[in-house]
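hey can u check if this looks right to u? its 289 residues, i copy pasted from the old doc so theres a chance i mangled smth
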Amino acid sequence: MTTAETKSRTTERGQYRRPDAAQRAARYATGTSTGAGTGTGTGAATGPATGTGTVTGTGARTGMGARTGTATGTGTATGTGTGGRVTVAVYAEDLILQTGMIHQLRMRPEIELIPEAEADRAQVSLVVVDMVDDQTVQLLHRLQRNTATRTGLVVGFFESGALQTMIECGVAAVLRRGEADQDRLIHLVKAMANGEGVLPGDLLGKLLDHVSSLQRTVLDPRGLTLSTLTAREAEMIRLVSEGYDTAEIAQKTSYSERTVKNVLHEVATRLDLRNRAHAVGYAMRHGLI
């Protein structure tokens, strides 16, 4: 055997018996790995909900060699939530009407029916009648005193003359009984709870005509408007908002300074306002100027 062959075999045996440094470090390294993770999830307002979150962690090995790394994963989070239900009190002129209305509303999870003894805490009062008579008007006036509750009327027959009565009694919504299926009832209740009004299209048209006639025949001849301010009062407060003083307002409106002062003082007294700036703020918030 030549010297070259001997060196080659020796080298081969040495490579077989002696692993490299990386292999030796991996074979004899000892240690532990740790990790931590967090998960978050979101749920809907009502009913069961699922969400997704992330989990992260780090691990380390100690020994003759060290390694570090990160791991990411996904997880799920489950939860349940409940949304606020609309509290409703039902008033009907007979037991049959009341039973039918309660049956329709009780089937829906959005509604919480309030017993008569606790009716004052209801968000919505539903009055169910055949027609608006004197007894109905008395009930509507009584419900009107509770400013925390909005009143809706479900009526069989609605006379045109009852429109004025409905306005005076503060009724926020009207639904004819012939159209009062479950979905329309729920829409009516939820709309009132949100501060909205609901009227059949023909009644809405009559209401607008009524308001227009009132403005034209009663208020305009007296220089009044449907707002809490007369036209003259609104004009003077508008000028105050534009920075004019008493003398300038008197010149622009052709009134005396004394009249301007009296008008602005009367507005502040009537509406319980502290000063002119307060009057301007009030008028702007209510869309009067």
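The radius of gyration is 39 Å.
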